[in-house]
Design brief:
Elements (H helix, E strand, L loop, with lengths): L1 H47 L2 E5 L4 E5 L3 E5 L6 E6 L11 E7 L9 H4 L3 H5 L3 E11 L5 E10 L5 E3 L3 E12 L2 E12 L5 H7 L4 E2 L2
Antiparallel strand pairs: 1-2, 2-11, 3-4, 4-5, 5-10, 6-7, 7-8, 7-9, 9-10
Amino acid sequence: MKKYLFLLILVVIILALCGVIYWQYKNMVVSERKSFVATTTSFQTTVGDWKTYMNQKFGYSVLYPNDWIFREFPDTQTGAGFRPLNSPDEIASECINVDERETAENEYNTPLSEYAKRAAIVEIQNYEKLNSIKSVTTTAGLTGYETTWIYRTMDGQEKVSLPITYFENKKTIQSGNGQLKYKTVQITLDNEDCGKTYEQMLPTLKLTE
């Protein structure tokens, strides 16, 4: 009888310990979730304090980090390359590019939702097919499409590109060679190490005219 009583007490103690461990674990998970929410809120505040790149020629703007710098494309003035201040002062260090791009006359009035599915194939050599596409909505309510593509290297290897995101911004510019049809503002990631900043910059794009 005493033996059974001892076993019963032992089982009760074990169950009590399991309960204590469970509640400690649950509280830890809740604490981590609260910590994540706080971090997300902090991120929103930080982005709000970023600098603004304004392209007056094509009527758009985008935010970029305070500790980054940009180089506007001097010949076309269609956009700029962005890089961290602590990176080498060279074009190769520009890991995010924002650019207004031309399109063929027959593509100018194509809905962006359709054009984005073949844009890189039309515009970039060796880009063969769409790999992924998802819609992106900016804080200003502008809808774009973030895409990746299958392409081939010079030695014939098949690879997946880094993201290119397209937003419609139709412009007709008069040049010495006649009218040029510009259809999209494109934000391109050129270095995966800058991927987090890239995703933070996307929602900040605005059309200013």
